[in-house]
Amino acid sequence: MGLFDELWFVALFFVGFVIGSLWSALCLTRFAHTCHADETDTVRYTGTSSTGHTETGTIRYMECSECGRTYEHVNGDYPHCPHCGRRVVNYEP
């Protein structure tokens, strides 16, 4: 077996590895369990923190399209439903 044959084998192995990795990544992102978060209610609040400062904000109540349970969305980002763990695909805070 010459040097060319060994390099050819390594190149084929590398190409197969890359194609397999890309296919795995595609399957994980495209075919993963997803849901939609629908906003059901919005509440504005004003409160006093433990240090005496006044805080204001908005609480959004979101409902998962798959499990149907609601959760609070408070000035943050939930990339996944906290109840069923599905990836939220349509909501941008």
Give a written overview of the molecule:
The protein folds into 2 domains: 1-31; 34-88, no CATH class. The protein is built from 1 helix and 5 strands, in the order H-E-E-E-E-E. With 93 residues, it is α+β, with helices and mostly antiparallel strands. The chain is elongated, with a radius of gyration of 24 Å. The chain has a 3-stranded antiparallel beta sheet, with no helix packed on it. Strands 1-5 form a two-stranded parallel sheet. The N and C termini lie far apart (60 Å). The protein has one helix at 3-30, and strands at 34-35, 37-48, 54-64, 70-74, 87-88.
The biggest beta sheet reads: 3 strands, antiparallel
What's the arrangement of strands in the largest beta sheet?
A: 2-3-4
Multimer state: single chain
First CA to last CA: what distance?
A: 60 Å
**Average pLDDT for all residues:** 76
Morphology: elongated
Query: Could you spell the SSE succession in H and E letters?
Result: HEEEEE
Helix content: 25-40%
Instruction: Report the C-alpha radius of gyration, rounded.
Output: 24 Å
Structural class: alpha+beta
Helical element count? 1
Number of domains: 2
Low-confidence stretches: none
